[in-house]
Design goal:
single chain; 504 residues; alpha/beta; five-stranded parallel β-sheet; disordered N terminus; binds 2-acetamido-2-deoxy-beta-D-glucopyranose; fucose metabolism; O-fucosyltransferase family protein; transmembrane; glycoprotein
Length: 504
């Protein structure tokens, strides 16, 4: 929307400065100029309103909870990017083809794609567009191109690495080429890839990584690799226009109602079955979750004591706990809350308390017409992409579990201007919740303690830090390579795609 209006500005500006005007066309010209002035004025007005509107969003809000930084936000960068200018492709001799099959949910795969591009760059390989997991818990059959804008992905990285849609036929097994299928060793650094993986390409033209989660170390990598990883995450991975449009529509509907909180309520069946957290579930539900865990071979841990897990801070907050914590943090009944999640396990029964505390709770299913969502409905990854967009654009983001989605969204919010994310300390929270619920800790003391515990966990700009700087211990909950931490002015050109000196 902003892009188009910029185009208009340029056009009208050009007309304004048209050098010689033939007399007989003077009237037409005059009318045009008048029209241009009127349109131009409208535009400027509109933009001012738009700015004010954003201003209200990000700084005019009273509650301490919503306090964001003074750094001006460029609206939503993702919605207002200038048309991409293609950089010249990098000229290098490819050592072979890298095929990858990503595993896990949408956000785990997203993190993996960032890693795989980086590895392909490091080893001078040609990357084949990653294959997405179709056998994960929710069995979404979406391919890469049904979730991400594949053309943009290929084009925007071409100054770094060659990406192709498939391995050329001439390298097929029919022509005597063998593909080596293997999972790379988890948490490896660049030395492993240079010393162990690169030599494999002299024998096999194609290597296929059939597992991608956590295959590249988080820490101690050269900064240029970290930067590339981040560039993939923030710039090269864009959702398809269908997803972007519907996501934008959701954001617009929400914004028309006022500032909103996105609550990533990770209280979904797969999470509970996987983690073994069953607090608040009926016996029947707990049994079902356990059965599901046993049925899923890749979930190694089978016997889990829910309460033990919970006391270690390893369980997602329940919807009831989330309600109490949000109230303690000072959110009131008027707060607009968007639930960024799939189906909540236990359904409306489990949402009752949260709904009572925050009547203005909504989900995408309520905000959009049935037919708008229909094409996404059976594709959990595409639905997750919509929640991702809304979460990134929200005024306050609260994840109830620190999984991949929480980390990636927090990172994007920092990248787009450090919008507030509240990183809950679940280990301390469950202690406080238990004390409050058995009557030991009255409400006011409970609320005070909850606020105290989270004083430094609300995404203040003080936590901006360059990855290469050693984070202080209390910052470790932010230390994720896909977040591209940076500080002050260093943020401004950390990921400038036109500054090639940075990534090389
Ligand atoms: C927001 O925080 C800044 C410092 O980080 C402070 O100066 C300002 O008063 C705060 N605003 C509100 C509304 O709390
Ligand atoms: C790529 O690099 C090679 C060797 O440096 C050079 O011979 C070739 O002309 C270059 N190709 C292009 C398109 O620049
Ligand atoms: C990758 O190519 C560059 C030249 O484009 C070369 O300097 C570098 O050594 C190559 N690295 C590997 C691992 O092949
Ligand atoms: C990956 O490939 C290896 C070697 O072929 C195989 O043993 C392993 O089971 C595969 N893993 C997956 C997840 O397909
Ligand atoms: C989604 O899947 C369900 C069950 O598999 C099916 O009944 C329904 O028709 C599907 N909906 C769409 C829009 O494809
Ligand atoms: C409440 O719970 C805490 C910790 O779970 C426990 O130490 C305390 O004794 C309990 N108090 C009552 C009154 O049950
Ligand atoms: C490019 O990045 C480098 C390193 O961050 C910086 O020193 C230089 O000023 C940047 N150049 C431009 C044109 O922004």
């Amino acid at each position: 929307m902003d892009v188009r209006s910029e185009g208009n500005q340029v056009r009208y500006y050009d007309k304004f400065h048209a050098p010689v005007i033939p007399r007989n066309r003077f009237r037409v010209w005059f009318i045009r100029v008048c029209l241009s002035i009127v349109l131009w004025t409208c535009l400027v007005q509109l933009m001012t309103v738009n700015e004010l509107w954003h201003f209200n969003f990000f700084s005019g809000f009273t509650s301490r909870i919503y306090n964001t930084t003074q750094r001006p936000l460029q609206g939503d960068v993702r919605f207002a990017q200038p048309p991409p200018t293609l950089l010249p492709p990098r000229n290098y001799t490819s050592n072979g083809f890298l095929r990858v099959s990503c595993n896990g949910g949408l956000n785990q795969m997203r993190a993996a794609i960032c890693d795989m591009v980086t590895i392909a760059r490091l080893l001078n390989l040609t990357l084949v567009v990653p294959e997405l997991d179709k056998k994960s818990f929710w069995a979404d059959h979406s391919g890469f191109e049904e979730i991400f804008d594949v053309r943009h992905f290929i084009d925007s990285l071409r100054d770094e690495v060659r990406i192709v849609k498939r391995v050329p036929k001439k390298f097929s097994s029919k022509n005597g080429y063998s593909t080596l299928k293997m999972p790379p060793v988890s948490w490896s650094n660049e030395k492993y890839y240079l010393e162990q993986i690169l030599p494999l390409f002299s024998k096999h033209k194609v290597v296929h990584f059939n597992k991608t989660d956590a295959r590249l170390a988080n820490n101690g990598l050269p900064i240029e690799l970290q930067k590339l990883r981040c560039r993939v995450n923030y710039q090269a991975l864009k959702f398809t226009p269908q997803i972007e449009n519907l996501g934008q529509k959701l954001v617009q509907i929400l914004r028309e109602r006022g500032p909103f909180v996105a609550l990533h309520l990770r209280y979904e069946m797969d999470m509970l079955a996987f983690s073994g957290c069953t607090r608040g579930c009926t016996n029947e539900e707990a049994k079902n979750l356990k059965r599901m865990r046993y049925a899923f071979p890749s979930w190694r841990e089978k016997e889990i004591v829910s309460e033990e897990r919970r006391s270690q801070g390893l369980c997602p907050l329940t919807p009831e706990e989330a309600a109490l914590v949000m109230q303690a943090l000072g959110f009131d009944r008027e707060t607009h809350v968007y639930i960024a999640a799939g189906e909540i396990y236990g359904g409306e029964r489990r949402l009752a308390q949260l709904r009572a505390a925050f009547p203005r709770i909504v989900k995408k299913e309520v905000l959009l017409a049935l037919d708008e969502l229909q094409q996404f409905q059976n594709h959990s990854s595409q639905m997750a992409a919509l929640d991702f967009m809304v979460s990134v654009a929200s005024d306050t983001f609260i994840p109830t579990y620190d999984g991949n989605m929480a980390k990636l969204v927090e990172g994007h919010r920092r990248y787009y201007g450090f919008k507030k994310s509240i990183v809950l300390d679940r280990k301390k929270l469950v202690q406080l919740l238990d004390l409050h619920q058995n009557g030991t800790l009255p409400w006011n003391n409970f609320a005070d303690s909850v606020r105290q515990v989270h004083e430094k966990r609300m995404g203040q700009p003080a936590y901006r830090r360059v990855i290469v700087d050693k984070p202080k211990e209390e910052d470790y909950f932010y230390a994720n390579p896909h977040e591209c931490l940076c500080e002050g002015t260093k943020c401004d050109n950390l990921l400038d795609p036109h500054n090639s000196s940075q990534v090389r």
